[in-house]
Predict the 3D structure of the following.
Amino acid sequence: MKTKRHTMVLIVMLFVAAFFCGNKMEAQAAGNYTIYVNRKTNLVNVVNSRTGKLVRAMYCSTGKGYSTIGGTFHTVSKMRWHALNHGVWGQYCTRIYGPYLFHSVWYYSTNKTQVSTAEYNKLGSQASAGCVRLAVVDAKWIYDHCGVGTKVVIGEAKKLKTPTRRLLKISTKSRTGWDPTDPDPANPYYPKITMKKAAARPIEFGSKFKPIKMIKVKSPLTPSETLIKYVKVKGKVNTKKAGRYKVTYTLTDPRTYLTVKKQYTFTVKKAALSDTEESTDSTESTEQTVSAPIQ
């Protein structure tokens, strides 16, 4: 009986310790950043609370007719999916105050293929009923990095910086689709890296070799000639040493922030024998044959 009681006490103590530790970490995360929202320019800037330096810039859709609440607030809670007005849903929701949230562009259901394409194309302009809509990549960033209690300042007093990536426009032939920035592996907007046919052949010893020339890149939204500039290559191929070399390619689409990684193995041929070496080998082979003992 005593053993059971001690076990229960230990479990309760561990639970309490985890609770307070979690709250402490959440409080620390809350103090890391300050989020600024401009309802006129429909931009969001996240700055380092200690240094004041910009950490991330985002496009958003605030409320039509300045219906998004203004002032200074501290975030209250987070929801992975949350029901919104009129029976629609938002991903990666962070409550600012009362009914006002940061969240993704709305979905018809909790299905990632069901985002409203027409509403997605309104990012950068006033379009919501009062919440602050974001692309999934940005809503998820706030959800993941800004703890409950993070300071949020909403108003027009501060001029905010524009993101380096351009606003995306997606096809509205269908009223629904994927948010092109959603990092879910099933997202069809992911860029692709493929190896060229010539890359599968062994590399000539001593030849010139550029790993970047061995791949092709493709994206539904970004031209290949632009995309190739964003490929990072890790690993080298020494064409003066025969062997197998692994090269890793990492590509981040500058328009969606989606990242794909591929590793390929390249083989360098052995050095070809010179005429002198071939002649020497032949002579040595003949002499060995002639002098072989007769059985």
